[in-house]
Amino acid sequence: MTTTSPENQQATVHRPSVRRFILPIAVALTVLFCLAPILWELLTSFKTDDAIAEIPNVYFPSPNQLTLDQYQKLFERRPFLNYLFNSFLVSLASTVLALGIGAPAAYALARLKLQGERIILAGVLIVTLFPPILLFLGLLDIVRYLNLGNNYLSLIIPYTAINLPLTILVMRSFFQQLPKDLEDAARVDGYSTPRMLLDIVLPMTLPALATTGILTFIAAWNEFIFALTFITREDMKTVPVAGAQLGGASPFEIPFGPIAAATVLGTIPLVLLVLIFQRRIVQGLTSGAVKG
Amino acid sequence: MDKKLDLVALRKAYTPTVVPVKDISLSVGAGEFLTLLGPSGCGKSTILRLIAGLEQPSSGQVLLNGRDVSRLSPGDRNIAMVFQSYALYPHMTVYENIASGLKLRKTPSGEVQSRIHEVADFLGLHELMNRKPGQLSGGQRQRVAVARTLVRRPDVFLLDEPLSNLDALLREHVRAELKQLFGSQNTPVVYVTHDQTEAMTLSTRVAVLNNGYLQQLDTPERIYTEPANRFVAGFIGSPQMNFLQVKCEAGQAIVGNSRIPLPLGSNPKEIVLGIRPEHVHVAQSSNEPALDGQVFLVENLGMHNLVSVRIASGGEPITVRALLGMEHRLATNTPVRLAFPPDSIHWFDVGAGDRVEATTPSMVRNG
Ligand SMILES: Nc1ncnc2c1ncn2[C@@H]1O[C@H](COP(=O)(O)OP(=O)(O)OP(=O)(O)O)[C@@H](O)[C@H]1O
Ligand SMILES: [Mg+2]
């Protein structure tokens, strides 16, 4: 042991010096690669029309090439606040529904010895395999039949349904790793089943609910096809659809500036959401429940 | 009225083939500390969960103070349980953890406070009251879990391997603490462990279980000195008891060149001789019952050597282990003559494994 240690030391001293350079560079490149489109949109949204059109591309605009006009135009020409509200309402409602239906279902699947549990799970899994585009035509017929066109429900219901399998599967595996002793202890303590679920299980479930909730919310916020087809009234459109339909002053002009501004505004709520709930997710509320 | 717990012909079948508890009847009275001891998977935890009401018995009854509680939910039974994992609510402070059971039973808040204060004094928990379980050490969590049961003042305490998550040193310390703590109160305690030291040191009585059946229910001393059958004899005591199957003739067992009288009234063809390693010693004279063998392993246990000796009998050689003092400097492959003092020998039936006792004295004792 002692004779080999000097060699080991040399090796460990030598290697980090290479790593010290390569690792940060690799990280920086990866981050740049991932963020480039977003940064480009962000930059575009603050540039003047001339600066956007200029060739070669302006990567570092001078102060007179920067403006807030694009955002102004966005709100002047279109009811953009309205779009944001629509997206928010539809995403929030479908997220709450997906969690409200999915979490209890997941708990039942994790804790009760159900007959045909495997079949139920297989069914849930198969639903996730359908590409939404295949469901779309059928859904359109249903929406027409139920007269749900231009109704928020025509989006809320499909978004909930599409996100339910994911919610159920993720929450089920979470409940499975939740120590059962805690629920037993609660029952010995005298909790009734509903109170146990609310006072003991739910607080420990919050991190998992936040994680799956964010995924559901993002999926609903970004959804395009259903939102494009089921909603035609201007004041009920969601952000992605409205952004895509932004028109220029003439049919031949593509309004790059306002589109970039719309993209940025459509992304900011998601970024805020993740930042707010990140702490919840990382917190790891269950630590210390059992031997740690 | 004195608190009392009775189990009557308790049976639990999860599936037709998985029957961890087959037929258990026992009772624990006031001031008693009963330990359920047995190998892993013998149904100890299941019995505790049946008492707590976390599982429903397939048949049989759980009586608490003479009242059948078999159909009551856990919350209505007034029992308190310490779980192996402690199962403290992670999102509540220590105080809230301890108070939760009382608050649910609508105990007046003044009494909740005074009871918690008393228990916290007793267990030294005052500084920890506002912490979450995640900020406690293992030993502290264990104490909080015990405190949570103590404040409840239940009709029976149930503890499922409460020390198994502690390191060896802390375990010894907490074991002594538990003994004092539960010794100073009068409520029946049912304690589950597979650690025989815990069982021997803590209990007033020990129930040895195997395979869903009660093997012996007795004081720790008698479990050690008079094991009811071969399983108990082999399970209790470390290192394990030696078992030798020997031939008998005219009420005497033939051990080497000498004969040892069997218990009065028994006259089988063969019998199992059991003797603990601590009772085997090196033969001093030629007329005590002894066997010749050869040392093949010497393990130093500090105070003693655990010496394994191979004894050539007619058929395949048998191994006898003896705890011998350090003064016998035995090396491997040296011949040795091991003596079996007749007073320390236990006799067991060859077939069923039951203890063979002199018929007359035992009849006197029972009568
Ligand atoms: N919910 C259950 N469903 C089916 N079988 C079970 C269930 N719980 C326990 N068992 C089985 O019952 C048997 C006894 O389990 P139990 O937990 O009572 O053992 P134990 O004596 O406490 O063991 P240990 O010392 O390892 O804790 C085991 O074989 C186990 O597999
Ligand atoms: Mg157990």
Short description:
With 292 residues, chain A is mainly α. Chain A has helices spanning 5-45, 49-53, 69-77, 80-111, 117-129, 132-145, 153-177, 180-189, 193-222, 225-230, 239-244, 256-283.
Topology:
The complex is a heterodimer of chains A (292) and B (367).
Chain A lengths: L4 H41 L3 H5 L15 H9 L2 H32 L5 H13 L2 H14 L7 H25 L2 H10 L3 H30 L2 H6 L8 H6 L11 H28 L9
Chain B lengths: L4 E8 L8 E8 L4 E5 L6 H9 L6 E6 L2 E2 L10 E4 L11 H11 L4 H15 L14 H13 L5 E5 L7 H16 L5 E5 L2 H7 L2 E6 L2 E6 L1 H6 L4 H6 L6 E8 L2 E4 L2 E4 L8 E6 L5 E2 L7 E11 L3 E8 L6 E8 L9 E5 L6 E3 L10 H8 L1
Parallel strand pairs in B: 3-8, 3-9, 6-7, 7-8
Antiparallel strand pairs in B: 1-2, 1-4, 4-5, 9-10, 11-12, 11-14, 12-13, 14-20, 15-19, 16-17, 16-19, 17-18
Helix pairs in contact in B: 2-3, 2-4, 3-4
The structure holds adenosine-5'-triphosphate and magnesium ion.
Keywords:
heterodimer, A: 292 residues, mainly alpha, MetI-like fold, 2 domains, 12 helices, 75% helix, globular, disordered N terminus, disordered C terminus, B: 367 residues, alpha+beta, Rossmann fold, OB fold (Dihydrolipoamide Acetyltransferase, E2P), six-stranded mixed beta sheet, five-stranded antiparallel beta sheet, 9 helices, 20 strands, 31% strand, elongated, binds adenosine-5'-triphosphate, binds magnesium ion
